[in-house]
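Chapter summary example.
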Amino acid sequence: MSDPNATWTTLVSAEDLAAALGREDLAIFDTRHSLAEPEAGEASYDAAHVPGAFYAHLDRELSDHRKAHAGRHPWPELQDFAAALGRWGVTPQTQVVVYDAADGALAAARMWFLLRALGHRRVAVLDGGLQRWQTLGLPVDANRPVAKPAPPYPATFDENRLLDAAQVQAHLDAGGVLVDARAAERFRGDVEPIDRVAGHVPGAINRPYAMTMRDGRFRPAQELAREFADVLKGRDPRDVVAMCGSGVTACHLLLALEHAGLEGARLFTGSWSGWIDDPSRPVARGS
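The structure predicted for these 287 residues follows.
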């Protein structure tokens, strides 16, 4: 029997979340998003969502598009994200659960890492997302909840976990690990459906985020820990920096590392789209 008052810090099952609905300290967020149709996620939310869930938009609340030269989904400013959390009623005591359509890559893991970078530990991603929730026949509704506003979230981002392109180059020069979570064909530069240049950062290694999944859910922690050991090669997890196309699906890799018991990996916030913003930066192709 699961504990309906448990604390979750990486993943939570649909069954455990269902048992906890109605908890006073619980805040649920729907972050479904389509890169091709940026308003489709919110439209789907308005049609049906986990009861009590708020909607957090990747472009509005989880990114700051006023920033230039910072990739396609620039990391939000502290004051803006802290104020948004306050409007939703999130405090340091809140147990947050975030979900998207299925695997967490768009954009549940992004919100998870935003909160983790603030030092908020009580945040987890719904394993299997809304897809598994609905497959199990668990309840949905179409009502937008009314928040109980709180002051802006009282914390600052851990800047040591957020790297720009120059810091990533220095990290590589010092022998650090840079892991690219994009699909292999994008990493190699065979195709590039989104960004204007194909390829990858020289020195990066490829581990597509989908490798962490099985049957729509995260693979067991022990399995992932064994595989990540081959990536780490004895290094501390803090020596790992994750990237992707724009700093969103990379957060899925950070979540997988922490699920595997490997805490402290960092994010290249601009990722590939930020790297190629400067045409003088080198580009590698092939495997």
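To summarize the output: DSSP finds ten helices and twelve strands in the chain.
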